[in-house]
Structure formats: C-alpha cells, structure tokens
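To: structure desk
From: M.T.
Subject: fold request, one chain
Message: Could you run this one when you get a chance? Sequence is below, nothing fancy, just the single chain.
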Amino acid sequence: MLPDVATLRRRLEATGYLTDEGLATALFCAARLPQPILLEGEAGVGKTQAAKSLAELLGTPLIRLQCYDGIEAAEALYEWNYPRQLLAIRLAEASGTHLQESELFGSDYLVERPLLQAVRHTGPLPAVLLIDEVDRADEEFEAFLLELLAEGSITIPEIGTVRATMPPLAVLTSNRTRDLHDALKRRCLYHWIDYPDVARAAAIIRRHVPGASEPLARSVAGAVQRLRGLDLQKPPGVAEAIDWVRTLHLLGADGPGAEGLDADVAAGTLGTVLKYREDLDAAAARGGAWIARGD
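Reply: Done. Structure tokens follow.
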C-alpha cells in the first residue's frame, strides 16, 4: 500500500492532511520498518492528526491512549472485571461448585484497555496505536511502555506474556512539557513538527474550511504567524488558525468584496486563537491593523 514516500504523502493529502517531505519520510519509515515514532512539536501543529490520518489512509483502527499526570498501567493496559468475578463466585457458591483461581482470571473477565487492544489486534493490517502526550505521564509509566515498544508484547501477571501477532504501528506524541527518557527515545524514530509557513498553513486551513477564500486563509495564516512572534504564554497553532477562520466565515467576514482579514473583526475575535488574558492584552497593544496586516 505504501511503496514510497511520494505515495504516502499523496494519500495523506487525500485524507486532508498536508505534510512536508520530512514528516512524510519519517512516517513512511515508521510504517515500513516498522518502528515506533515519536512526534514532538508545539501544541496545535498536527501531531495527533498525523496518527489519525495514517490510520485513515491504511484503513486500520486507530487506538488512542491519552496520557495524563498520574496515569497508571491498569488504565492503559487492562483491568479485571471485579463485579463480574464476584458474581461468578456467588453463583458458584449457590450451586455448590468450586471455581479455580485460573477460571476467575481468564479472558472472560479481562477488560481490555488501549495497549492490550492494540497488541491483540489481529489485522489484516496493524492498528495505529496513538500514545498521545506521553510527556504528561511520569517516568515510571515511560518504563512500562518499553516492553511494548521494543518487543511488541505485554506481560499480565495472572496470564503471562501476550505477544502481538500483528504489532501495532505506534505513534507517540509529546509537547515537551518535560524531557523524555533516553531509553524511550532509543526505541523510536524521531521527528520534530514545526509550524508550517504561511502558504502551507493557508492550504491546510482551506482543506478544513472549504468555504473560506484564499485571501482570508492567507491573512489568518499571516496573522497567526505574527502573533507567535509576541511573548505569549500559549502561541497559537494551526488548529487555532482553523478555528479562527471558521469563526470569521460564520460571522460573514468572508463575504463578497472582502480582501482578507479586517482589522476590527480581527481584534474582536482574538479569543478564538489566544486563550490567556495576558496574551490578549499583548496582542491588543499592537492593534487590529498590525494583527490583520502587519501595519
């Protein structure tokens, strides 16, 4: 399905995901080797969407594990269905039968979480396993992931080692809220996704907002790029630019005769792209004309 990088890039674009040569090459290598890939970059540059679009073009399930502070192995891998186990014990007692421990810790009582789902996926193509924002988890959880990333297997104490017949295509994302351990990085290919230039950002915007005009898309892409040059707590990404265009389109700012982003409308809709009071103040201090046109 993926004979070369150009084919992968073309098929990604068919899903609505525009990429550059570097990211397309990294995803191609991850899919064909196969090997886990770590995508890093600022929030909103399309790391998560890369995994979603890869699953879409392959026609295979996307299995997503959203990481967060304090996530534990049971929430990522598996849990035992304790209410069902208790019910089975009571039914056995009522009927005078005896349950072996092995019967209570079998697959009938196992609740699969994302990692186990990915390992047990049988194909015909590998599932895309998205381990999103892995930097939000702690180092202990990173260590827990190593067996899966290196060997395509996981160990369940009550059952033993479960090996994947069709190892998942693992895509890890990180916003670099903290540095990841070298042991995790060694097991992954790596690619840094940077903000796109104005032309590509405008093309991405129009893919997501087909009704938007080219002048509005380019104006918003340029405005977002200028805003990133300010000292902001949360610089806007491509996702915020898309939301901004959707808002402007809804408000009729893209009507006949419009030649891009209006200064007053830009100033009045900044809450679409900036999410902190201090960031709004910093942008307002530069004025609507600067935001819209750089004046």
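Reply (cont.): The radius of gyration is 24 Å. Let me know if you need anything else for the meeting.
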